[in-house]
Amino acid sequence: MNFPDIGLQASKILLPKAGIDIQRWSVIACDQYTSDEGYWQQLASETAGVPSTLNLIFPEVFLEDSDGEARIASINQAMESYLADGSLSEQLAGFVLVDRKTPEVESRKGLMVALDLEQYDYNQGATSLIRATEGTILDRLPPRIKVRENAPIELPHIMVLIDDPERTVIEPLFDSGPELIYDFELLAGGGHIKGYRIDQSQQIKQVAAALAKLADPKSYRARYQVESEVMLYAMGDGNHSFATAKAIWEKLKKAADDKLAIMAHPARYALVELVNLHDAGLEFEAIHRVLFNINPAHLLQEMDLWFNQRGEGFSYTPCENLAAAQALSAAPHEGQGFSLILAGRYGYCQLKTPQLTLDVASLQTFLDAYLAEQPSARIDYIHGCDAVSSLGNHANNAGFYLPAISKNNFFRTIIIDGALPRKTFSMGEADEKRFYLECRAIR
Predict the structure, then answer these.
(1) What CA–CA distance (Å, rounded) separates 269 from 1?
(2) Is 5 helix (H, G, I), strand (E, B) or coil?
(3) Which residues contact 84 (CB under 8 A, 6 or more apart)?
(4) How far apart are CA 398 and CA 295, in angstroms?
């Protein structure tokens, strides 16, 4: 069942058959714990000898290993095997309603749906129905394309956001008496998850109608005070995985002899979890910046020159400690402001007339330009103020403390500014990321 105006499909989702140990079937997203081989080795030990999505993914911690081609071949073989031996059971066309408990939140609700890649454009300035929220780094696509291009199935860790403050799309489904199809504790302290079958015609049409209402052009433009094309879906987690699916789809279209028939190909769609931006269990975490191997005085001088040449009204105030700097950030102020530490000395930066909507976007634009001229310098993206303070206390280092992005202004920011700089926000901690569970045939 397709709803082309809103880029939605009710697909035949694949789930592990009855009798499979679903706890060991489900593992965390491949782009987590990328510096912790021990995590993945322990996971391999816990899932050895049983059907598991670990056999269907390429953990990014191993991307630089020399056995990449063999690993991809093994992944494709495992996918074929699970399809052939009945380990994966095809459901009726529909959705899966998800309720996830994490170590940090009691409940985060989502809905597994398929979205139309024809309605997605990750390029800067895109006006498509589905849009990237952070800049897509094209160099990150080739290894993902190698994994997906011969894969018979997809299994997503992609989370896509909808802006539904009245909670009209996902939340009412819990009141419709959906059938419970899984309920278990996730591995490695990942929390608990429940899934419910949404395959009745009335339920599916209810979802589509609520999404269509959010996408109504007149109410959309009034809500965001813009005249632009409708953005119904914004990428949350898994931006590069969704971009990979798009790249494969474009390749299939280009190679097809029958340009009409190819439009019905299952790879035109990608399975994702829709999450309401206003879900109480969805938390945006701040991502801070630390620079290494820089001259602090020169950095401050360049910031002053860069921002003031652009007419953004930059000023810097030295502060006795972090608390004093953060007090200035928290106090009512004109424009934008953020705290920093330069070789152990704290300060507060203000932009009175910023060109961009978010503090982090303004700062990252400068940092990209600055680092391009400083080949010995490097940047890291840090969670937690304590780590920033510790690293920024060293000579020739600088740390920038950034606020968490506001969920209330998130969609409007994307609509007006376009895709945000990389590492602008994080949807929760590592153990809150999606676990692989549902699959879908793409061949």
Answers:
(1) 12
(2) helix
(3) none
(4) 9
What are the helix (H) ranges across 275-402? Answer: 296-309, 322-330, 359-372, 385-392
**What ranges in 230-295 are assigned the alpha helix state H?**
239-255
pLDDT of residue 65: 87
CA-CA distance, 388 to 188, in Å (whole number)?
27
**34 contact partners, CB below 8 Å, separation of at least 6:** 60, 61
The amino acid at 220: Y
| CA atoms of 296 and 198, how far apart (whole Å) | 56
Rounded to 5°, the CA angle 101-8-105 comes to: 10
Closest residue by Cα to residue 8 from 260, 261, 209, 276: 209
pLDDT of residue 182: 98
Handedness of CA 101, 105, 106, 108 (dihedral sign): negative
Per 3-state DSSP, the chain is made up of helix, strand and coil in percentages (nearest 5) of: 35, 25, 35
Q: Are residues 438 and 114 in contact, defined by beta-carbon separation less than 8 angstroms?
A: no
Supply the pTM of this predicted model.
0.86
Q: What is the secondary structure of 164-224 as a DSSP string?
A: -TT--SSGGGGGS-PEEEEEEEPGGG--EEEEEEE--HHHHHHHHHHHHHHT-HHHHHHHH
When pLDDT is cut at 50, 70 and 90, the band that residue 125 belongs to is: confident
What is the spatial distance between Cα 168 and Cα 61, in angstroms, rounded to a whole number? Answer: 39
Distances (CA, A) of 421 to 83, 138, 360, 366, 418: 39, 14, 8, 11, 9
Mean pLDDT of the chain: 93
Question: CA-CA distance, 304 to 379, in Å (whole number)?
Answer: 20
User: Rounded to an integer, what distance in angstroms lies between the CA atom of residue 31 and that of residue 434?
Assistant: 10
* 249 touches 122 (CB < 8 A): no
DSSP 8-state secondary structure symbol assigned to residue 286: P
The alpha carbon torsion through 389, 394, 395, 401 (nearest 10 deg) reads -20
Give the list of residues 6+ apart from residue 172 with CB closer than 8 angstroms, or none: 206, 210
Task: Show the CA angle centred on residue 310, arms to residues 306 and 314, nearest 5°.
Answer: 65
